[in-house]
Amino acid sequence: MAGTLVVHTERKAKPIHALPEAPGQPNMLRQPLIRQRLAQLERDQKQTLLDLSLRRNQLSVPDRTRLFRAAAEFLQERLDLAPEQYVSDEKFVLQLAAMLGERPAIS
After folding, report:
1. What is the 3-state secondary structure (H, E, C) of the chain?
2. How far is the C-alpha of 16 from the C-alpha of 20, rounded, in Å?
3. Model-level pTM?
């Protein structure tokens, strides 16, 4: 105790770095095809897809799972699209919803 110096250091939490989205994003070569097929959806179907995506955090886990599974099955059947390997129903639907909100790049 005598002659001892005590130093308190504050530990700061390290930031969490998200993994890049590249592996889960639709393949760049598929994007024009996906956009073309998304254009086949009716306005109310597009709105439902966007609403589900925006309100997903308000849903209970069982309801969220059920609704995203139903949406993914509908989109796969209606648009003849399949998710990339290892992409969940929710991620698949969210990717498509995100593409609805994007404007295609003009070359």
Report:
1. CCCCCCCCCCCCCCCCCCCCCHHHCCCCCCHHHHHHHHCCCCHHHHHHHHHHHHCHHHCCHHHHHHHHHHHHHHHHHHHCCCCCCCCCHHHHHHHHHHHHHCCCCCC
2. 12
3. 0.68
Per-residue pLDDT of the chain (107 residues; tens, 9 = 90+): 567 766 666 666 666 655 455 444 556 677 888 899 999 999 999 999 999 999 999 999 999 999 999 999 999 999 998 888 899 999 999 999 999 877 655 55
Domain locations in the chain? 41-101
